[in-house]
Amino acid sequence: MEAAWLVAVIVVPVFFNVYSSRIFEPDKLTMLRTLGLVILAAWLIKLVEQGGFRWGRIKRDKSVIKTWLGIPITIPVLILTLVYLLATLFSVTRYTSLWGSYQRL
Q1: How far is CA 101 from the centre of its chain?
Q2: Does the pTM exceed 0.90?
Q3: Which comes out higher in pLDDT, residue 40 or 54?
Q4: What's the CA gap between 90 and 102, in Å, rounded?
Q5: Is the pLDDT at 54 greater than 70, yes or no?
Q6: Phi-psi region for residue 51, left (φ > 0), alpha (ψ -120 to 50) or beta?
Q7: Distance linking the first and last C-alpha atoms of the chain
Q8: In angstroms, rounded to a whole number, what is the distance separating the alpha carbons of residues 15 and 10?
Q9: How far apart are CA 31 and CA 39, in angstroms?
């Protein structure tokens, strides 16, 4: 996982496909998504080998909602999701806002 994100940080910004008929940004995005999927697959394999989640620091007497809100990244992710949903809801073209376009992947 660490090697994949290091490759993403180093290689993706300097990647340029001379054989592409489009600008080079979609090629970078495809490489970044592929590396992200590799990281996700490696993390899932690690998770299965360890036997599931291990939340050592979180107390077991809390409710499930309080437990999830106790993780530092949860609230920013929820806020970002809410902003994306509101932006899609109030968009001029909701379908394109939700699914994207072919040209921009």
Answers
A1: 19
A2: no
A3: 40
A4: 21
A5: no
A6: left
A7: 25
A8: 9
A9: 12
